[in-house]
Amino acid sequence: MTTLAITDGQVLRPDLTVTAADVLVDQDTGEIREIAPELAADADETLDAAGSLVTPGFVNGHCHVAMTLLRGYADDKPLDAWLQEDIWPAEGEMTPEDVRVGAELGLLELIKSGTTAVADMYFHVPEVAAAVENAGIRARLGHGIVTVGKDDEAAREDAQTSLEIAREYDGAADGRISTAFKPHSLTTVGSEYLEEFIPKAREAGIPVHYHANETEAEVTPIVEEHGQRPLEYAAEQGMLEPEDFIAHGVHVDDREIELLAEAGTGVIHCPASNMKLASGMAPVERMREAGVTVGLGTDGAASNNDLSMLDEARDAAMLGKLAADDASAVPAEAVVQMLTAGSADAIGLESGRLEEGAPADFAVIDLEQPHLTPPHDLVSHLAYAAAASDVRHTVCDGRVLMRDREVLTLDERAVRERALEAAETLAARADG
Ligand SMILES: CSC[C@H]1O[C@@H](n2cnc3c(O)ncnc32)[C@H](O)[C@@H]1O
Ligand SMILES: [Zn+2]
Fold first, then answer.
1. What is the ipTM of this complex?
2. pTM for the predicted model, two decimal places
3. Residue nearest atom 1 of ligand 1, based on CA coordinates
4. Backbone phi, then psi, for 28, in 5-degree steps?
5. Most buried of 190, 237, 309, 424 (most Cβ within 10 A)?
6. Which domains does the chain possess?
7. Could you report the per-residue pLDDT of 391-419, keeping only the tens digit for each?
8. Is the beta carbon of 121 within 6 A of some atom in ligand 1?
């Protein structure tokens, strides 16, 4: 057995207590072997965690990693105008190589901010998968389907691509890659394509992920056309199963919350994107009280504008309180749960908890910083005060991806240089 020891840290346990302990990882299986005050034997590789908090690696439940190339390209507009006037025209100019380069930049940012798993929806997925394989993190990938504005042949081809990609890449990268069937949203994919393809995804045992109830403007046409709330319509289409997860869930009424809870469908809350696009405030406290599995996601870097899950955690707490008009709503414990096990459960991964037998996915946070002093409550610090730059080490599947802030799986300088060049030429093409 090849082993990795993470020594002398404060370890965040699944019940959110913190204990001084070492962690032993079996690198052959990628699992946690032991968590104990002191390990009996030396390991093959050691990571020092003195003065640090060892937490589960953060799980980003909804992202478009390659959109890092469009960070700062178009800001300060609501969703529909932002997509139609700026983002979709620019994405129309993106080559497979752009997606590869943008994905590498996004994955570099994720690793540097302690994220070890991501659910990603985009196009040119083989390029995203290749970047994930090299970067060493976990991912649930899928090709995003848009059928509006396409003829029947092109629409069916898009849906077929999503199905085929999900089948082909499930289990890739030594099992770090899993997949989903990903219609972009309930308004951008026609019902005839959902009726035809969702049963095929079910037959293949593939989960379904889509944007839902993000803005009022997206809810209204569904109510008008189908006489149903969006998630009632989704349930009728067979898109509300326990393995499925939606992004956003901002404008959900009581009946829809009940449907989510009954179905066991996860919701990925994206507070920064919802605030920036002024989409609204998701009723996170009400959803959690109703028993809905809620996780956190950054969405893409063009609507956030970073991929730090620690920022997302703080935003979730702040916005959750505002939405509930209650300072005790979405407390630190809830936020840390959503950041780790909540997101993992929602997207169907076993990560997000530090216990024997669990996947060895960690973020090690340097606590010896002015803004993390004094250490009254480390769960509070994780929710409210820690920043991406406090992450010292990142480990996924038992492999060290970042040691003392040096990313070992990607060449940071080369990734940035390639991204700078690709972003510049992409913007030139898009601006014509
Ligand atoms: C077809 S691949 C995914 C697609 O989603 C777009 N996108 C990015 N952010 C959002 C959002 O908040 N709501 C809806 N769609 C979004 C992205 O630009 C890709 O085109
Ligand atoms: Zn999104």
1. 0.99
2. 0.98
3. 144
4. -70, -40
5. 309
6. 3-56+353-407 (2.30.40.10), 65-347 (3.20.20.140)
7. 999 999 999 999 999 999 999 999 999 99
8. yes
